[in-house]
Design a protein that fits this description.
The complex is a heterodimer of chains A (245) and B (308). Chain A is an all-alpha fold and 245 residues long. Chain A contains 9 helices and no strands. Chain B has 2 domains: 220 residues, 3-Layer(aba) Sandwich (Rossmann fold), CATH 3.40.50; 78 residues, Alpha-Beta Plaits (2-Layer Sandwich), CATH 3.30.70.100. The chains are: A mainly alpha (245), B alpha/beta (308).
Chain lengths: 245, 308
């Protein structure tokens, strides 16, 4: 099986983990006849714990870095660079395809887990506002992180190692720093777009958040995306890639 | 008149390693063969021609225009790389159509061109199979198909006959020659002289990153003919056979193998040697097990020409 197809399947399965978790929670609750914990509450925790801290980072990391690296590793870059398209178009085209793919993967799992957890109140329309908002925030996160990792994949040879350190080191630590330091993380702006949670089991993850205004957070996310995409295009156009025969 | 391909003082290094040095040539319409042993600089030269790498010194011009970062010019070039690399999970059809879409053809044009290219390389029946299931020969043919699918004016082929069986090789040579008849410019590299000889008379000999000789194939052949050849004859009475050859003036040296059943003859005229050999064998009733030419390869010829 091709490495790329295999990788996509593995990540698709990972993106469906929340659906399995949601099913498990729902089944346990049905059998234990507990109704004290709200489905929306569990879903919100899932967004903060699983999606923001893990899933969107891992998906963006592997697909963003692949924009350039997989063509080099597979020695297929020659097929693209000998066509009448600019190198920037190659980067942007592949970025757009991968960003769409990771958004699709994430949103499918998100929708299913939401529906399972809130199966008892699907007739209440207000709950869909939460789903839409979370889907938009996660998609923005994926767009921004994928742009960042696309740049890292073009810039560095050991990009996976750097990406892992950034994702689970920098992003997971700097966001809890007090004051303006936390603004040096992307996740800070994503969290700023979510409503404040108080009293939840995982509320400590938002505990030290000193939110930026939603408008500025949106602006910063688009700015980061634009800067890293432009830098990726520039770097890819200037660099030579020597494919060994 | 502007040459189709022109290079001037073209040089390229990979760190401290010389890839190509001071190459100034002009290539016109028709087939030009780039001949050289492995590591001679053929692929570097072709990568420079297709704008994949940038020269350290000098320039490449295709139809009078610089190729580096000139994407529009690439629509006139079809490149068949040497490496056996593909998007393995794609079918042959998907591979061709995806690459054709990069030429801004309409959907119908993409399909027509892909179909045509598949017919040319005789892969129509296998177009829906994934590339990873293709044989080596089929992979080589689909690689050639992607180079011709957009009907380019200039075809640059890096070792296109690698991995093909003799029949497929003949077909491919015929195909490449048919593009010459259509008025296209074809630059084809190989490390096998007879392959190039079968395609064209125009040869560029490349060795250690430099153009060693350039011109008609007969000139190259003459250089090779002057090169002393070693011929090994494995037989039951090598010393008796040696005594018969020793008086011939085109035999320069006679040696015996370690196993005492082989004779190594160094000659500067292979044709005369091979015309006399059968009669001597019959006359002396000598039984031959094997006749080989251990140095009959391009590297040996180059070593001889550069005076090693």
């Amino acid at each position: 099986m091709g490495r790329r197809a295999k990788r996509t399947k593995v990540f698709y399965l990972i993106s469906l983990l929340p659906v399995m978790m949601a099913t498990l929670i729902k089944v346990t609750r049905v059998f234990s006849q507990r109704s004290d914990i709200d489905g929306l509450y569990i879903f919100s925790n899932m967004i903060v714990v699983f999606y923001l801290q893990f899933l969107i980072l891992i998906l963006s990391l592997f697909f963003g870095i692949s924009v350039c690296a997989e063509e080099l590793e597979g020695k297929t870059l020659t097929y693209l660079t000998t066509r009448p398209v600019s190198k920037s178009a190659i980067v942007l085209g592949k970025y757009a395809a991968y960003a769409s793919l990771v958004i699709l993967m994430t949103v499918v799992g998100l929708v299913f887990s939401f529906l399972i957890l809130n199966a008892n109140k699907l007739h209440r329309f207000y709950i869909y506002k939460t789903l839409l908002r979370d889907a938009v925030v996660l998609s923005l996160g994926l767009i921004c992180y994928t742009a960042f990792f696309t740049f890292i994949g073009i810039l560095l040879k050991r990009s996976i190692m750097f990406g892992l350190l950034f994702s689970f080191g920098w992003e997971n630590v700097i966001q809890y720093f007090p004051g303006s330091t936390q603004r040096f993380s992307i996740v800070h702006y994503l969290k700023s777009l979510l409503p404040g949670q108080t009293g939840g089991r995982f509320s400590f993850l938002l505990f030290r958040l000193e939110p930026t205004s939603p408008a500025l957070a949106l602006f910063m996310l688009f700015l980061i995306t634009g800067v890293f995409l432009a830098s990726s295009c520039l770097l890819f156009s200037l660099r030579e890639y020597i494919i060994e025969d | 008149m502007i040459p189709i391909v022109e290079t001037k003082n073209l040089s390229r290094w990979y760190g401290n390693v010389l890839g190509l040095s001071d190459v100034s040539i002009q290539i016109e319409q028709g087939i030009s063969g780039i001949l050289g042993p492995n590591g001679a600089g053929k692929s570097t030269f072709l990568k420079l021609l297709t704008g994949q790498i940038k020269p350290n010194i000098g320039f490449v011009r295709i139809k009078g225009k610089k190729i580096w970062n000139n994407y529009a010019l690439l629509s006139e070039i079809g490149f068949c790389p040497e490496q056996d690399a593909f998007y393995e999970e794609m079918t042959g059809w998907q591979f061709l159509t995806s690459l054709l879409k990069l030429y801004h053809f309409s959907k119908t044009e993409v399909e027509t061109q892909a179909q045509k290219a598949l017919e040319v390389v005789e892969l129509t029946n296998d177009k829906d199979r994934v590339i990873r299931s293709y044989s080596r020969g089929m992979r080589q043919r689909i690689k050639f198909a992607q180079a011709i699918a957009h009907d380019p004016e200039i075809l640059i082929l890096d070792e296109p006959l690698n991995g093909l069986d003799p029949l497929a090789r003949r077909k491919m040579i015929r195909l490449i020659k048919s593009y010459e008849k259509e008025g296209k410019t074809i630059i084809v590299s190989s490390h096998v002289l007879p392959e190039i000889e079968a395609m064209t008379n125009r040869v560029i000999l490349i060795h250690q990153g430099k153009i060693f000789a350039e011109g008609d194939i007969h000139y190259i052949r003459d250089l090779i003919e002057d090169h002393p050849h070693i011929i090994s004859v494995k037989c039951n009475r090598p010393r008796e056979l040696a005594s018969k050859f020793i008086n011939e003036d085109y035999v320069l040296k006679v040696n015996f193998g370690l196993t005492q059943d082989s004779l190594l003859v160094e000659t500067n005229n292979r044709d005369k040697f091979f015309s006399l050999l059968p009669s001597l064998l019959v006359e002396g009733k000598i039984e031959v097990e094997e006749i080989t030419s251990p140095d009959d390869n391009l590297q040996a010829v180059f070593d001889y020409l550069v005076g090693k």
